[in-house]
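Researcher: Next entry in the queue.
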Amino acid sequence: MKTRPSVTEEMIREAIQGLVDKHDIGDPDLLVEHYRYPMNGNELAITLARREGWDYGCEITDEFIDDLDCIDSNVRRLHEAAQKRWFEENDIKPPLPIGAQVKQGRIDGISEHCVGCYLIKRPEDEGVKRWLLLKFEDAEAV
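Model: Structure for this entry, 142 residues:
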């Protein structure tokens, strides 16, 4: 089975395109170089200020920071789409049944929102509507 896709430089480049088109960014590669998934706009702005000497009020404005925030949600959307394709193309099936015990707790279901993930009920979460998300490939039966 092919491994679950991770965030790629290509995804980041696609995610920043709208921002590059909107703002006068001399070298878009700087955004690719300094962005780390997950990273909010404020964190990226601080990194650009520290490592590239960008100044608040010049290169960095409140609007620019808001737009930097969109990078993360765009990358997340592209990454989720890649994971859905991986899941469907490889006909991924859960390796363990619901009710099985894993190191983190008991498999209580399969997530409808996180591709290829179990809902794990930890002992401390019994009686509470809270679950740990665990990727199929990270589940180890005990």
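Model: The mean pLDDT is 95.
Researcher: Noted, moving on.
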